[in-house]
Amino acid sequence: MKIRILFSLMVAAAVGCVPSAAPLKGVPAPDRTLPSLSLPVGHRHLVFKWEYQEGEIAARGDGSVRTAAPDSARLDFFLGGGLGAGAAVLIGDSLRSPHAELARRYIPPSPMMWAVLGRLAIPPLPDTVVRIDGDLLRADVGSPVQWRVGIRGDTLVELQHISGGKIIESITRGANGVLTYEAPGARRRLELTFLRDQPGSFDASIWGL
């Protein structure tokens, strides 16, 4: 009985940490639509540093992403101090890895991971509301709202996944190439600091994990 009560309290505390989605900011823009944001044409190679936190657990290291338009990415993560490494391949909305369970735990879900790489790949839903907030185009997608998008120019700067009026996970693009993924209910946070983004040259063997 005590264990059941403790578990219920833990669940309630986690739910309490999940922020509510405020009303969409900006001026209504019924003539505007969400732009199509895709991976750059060809192959790219991105290098980054990462920091991961989940509750009291924390880790950091280096990593790289190799992308091939329109919808393929190879991710490599290296734990600091040479203590380990992992890899995954994301094609469309399918994530493959030799350690699939760990990959799904530490790598954001596919719409969020694509948002990290600048690609807008949320499920198609009706009822999109667009507003203009200064130099930002903001949009709520779905009824009830399931996704909230923020775009500056041709850059995806924010993506929020909303359920029951709560922001259950988000991607935010900050200054100096820093991207932050947060899942408040799971007390999970992944921060990526991109150091290089350049054309890449690689063959088909990188997709075979």
Total helical elements: 3
Oligomer kind: single chain
- N-to-C span: 45 Å
User: How much is the average pLDDT?
Assistant: 90
How are the strands of the largest sheet arranged? 1-7-8-9-10-11-12-13-2-3-4-5-6
By CATH, the architecture is named Clam
Number of domains: 1
CATH classification class: Mainly Beta
Report the CATH topology name.
Answer: outer membrane lipoprotein receptor (LolB), chain A
Outline, from the CA principal axes? globular
Proportion of beta-strand residues: over 45%
Number of strands: 13
**Amount of helix:** 10-25%
How would you characterize the largest beta sheet?
Answer: 13 strands, antiparallel
Summing up helix and strand content along with how strands pair, one would put the structural category as: mainly beta
Order of secondary-structure elements: HEEEEEEHHEEEEEEE
Main attributes of the structure:
209 residues; outer membrane lipoprotein receptor (LolB), chain A; 13-stranded antiparallel beta sheet; globular
Question: What's the topology here?
Answer:
Blueprint: H1 2-16, E1 27-28, E2 43-54, E3 57-68, E4 72-79, E5 84-91, E6 94-96, H2 100-106, H3 110-116, E7 128-133, E8 136-141, E9 147-152, E10 155-163, E11 166-173, E12 178-183, E13 188-199
Description:
The chain is mainly beta and 209 residues long. It has helices at 2-16, 100-106, 110-116; strands at 27-28, 43-54, 57-68, 72-79, 84-91, 94-96, 128-133, 136-141, 147-152, 155-163, 166-173, 178-183, 188-199. It has one domain (2-196): outer membrane lipoprotein receptor (LolB), chain A, CATH 2.50.20. Strands 1-7-8-9-10-11-12-13-2-3-4-5-6 form a 13-stranded antiparallel β-sheet, covered by helices on one side. A hairpin with a 2-residue loop joins strand 7 and strand 8. 21% of the residues are buried. The model is unreliable at 1-16 (pLDDT under 50).
